[in-house]
């Protein structure tokens, strides 16, 4: 292991040198800088996918992530690491977990073991314990037990990690896809519960000490989307006016509502042994094409905080960036919301985002018809920004983000179909994947006449939050020139309570 780590560090240093120090800091010029996220986390260089091991401890949010430190396409997985005190400003840390003789380091979770049930704590300090999937590619040919679950622990607040000598702690019973453990403490029964993706189902395990696990039950054979393999599950309690409702997050690839990867969820009850739901319809946390592998932070008290990978496996390896590839969504707060006879999980940007906003510019507060260019009120539009829209009636409208080359990203509402949409068909580079330049739709769940819409736009991504987070969409885009124009378009007269533009401060270092 030590020899492998030294070799990895040597190769990593060579690759960084070849990129040059400026690129290694994420300050590339030209197209690389044009697409580099300003308010979303992306690595200084190379490939990332799933967020992993997200845990809050001692005032610090830890985000680990699937990382390939030698290339901008998927490869042997490590756990990258970044930290933040506000979920907006991230500091990339040294790689936390390297592949070893048991395999690559696939997705998983991390917990604070307050009572030191694992025995990994020292001198009265509780350990952070990471639970992850080892993927042994050397066993992959002709076998189906090449994925199994292992542990690592930290006794210095997540700065360094040591793998458990007894790995793996959960062996594979012969299931090809046996991965992505999300562990929580189920306090009523004083035990740990692991939610594990097993092919296109979920299997629950329990343990008194994080080392010894027994199978409890299975879920999902006939429920939800089964367009592809189930991955990156999460089990978390939500508050429904004083009543506890359990949310089971299940990421699926493919099978999303707009094609490819997406995050579905189930609401129900969990008794420590099995999850039961009365839900029959498939529900999605994000309807856009570019949110996947989303899970929640652990140890955040009453706040349920969610983060996803801002990409799609249909084209993630082909995106037109080179020194780095892919980013994370904004951190989001989840809560239960009733709409008519239905209950949904709403998703909105965390309040910490307000600290990077500047003074709003009111663009309109009256009836608007046709296409209106608001350049006279804001001058050249700058990204990142937040656009807030409130209408007093549900009629067709669109927000157009455009540049001087005639490229545009169009976002809006269609009354006849009663849905929101993102149209990136003319947004710039779209030919790297045959279906990238498409129009994506998401249903509206609120019956009120008025529409409330928030758009958070970075230089290469947009996140749509409609009706206080009941409908959410995430999409990346790649214009050949930065978008600098903001237009509102409506065929018929639309009554606007508020249309405002809010410039946001970059958090890119």
Topology:
Blueprint: H1 2-19, H2 21-24, H3 30-35, E1 46-57, E2 60-68, E3 78-84, E4 91-97, E5 104-112, E6 128-135, E7 147-154, E8 162-163, E9 178-186, E10 191-198, E11 201-207, E12 214-219, E13 229-240, E14 243-253, E15 262-270, E16 275-276, E17 283-284, E18 292-296, E19 305-309, E20 324-325, E21 332-339, E22 342-349, E23 361-364, E24 367-373, H4 375-378, E25 385-391, E26 397-402, E27 408-414, E28 419-423, E29 439-443, E30 451-458, E31 461-466, E32 471-476, E33 485-503
Give a written overview of the molecule.
Residues 1-28 have low confidence and may be disordered. The protein contains four helices and 33 strands. It has helices spanning 2-19, 21-24, 30-35, 375-378, and strands spanning 46-57, 60-68, 78-84, 91-97, 104-112, 128-135, 147-154, 162-163, 178-186, 191-198, 201-207, 214-219, 229-240, 243-253, 262-270, 275-276, 283-284, 292-296, 305-309, 324-325, 332-339, 342-349, 361-364, 367-373, 385-391, 397-402, 408-414, 419-423, 439-443, 451-458, 461-466, 471-476, 485-503. Strands 23, 24, 25, 26, 27, 28, 29, 30, 31, 32 and 33 form an eleven-stranded antiparallel sheet that branches. A five-stranded mixed sheet has the order 4-3-2-1-20, with no helix packed on it. Strands 13, 14, 15, 16 and 17 form a five-stranded antiparallel sheet that branches. It is mainly β and 509 residues long. It is globular. The two termini are 32 Å apart. Helices cover 6% and strands 46% of the residues.
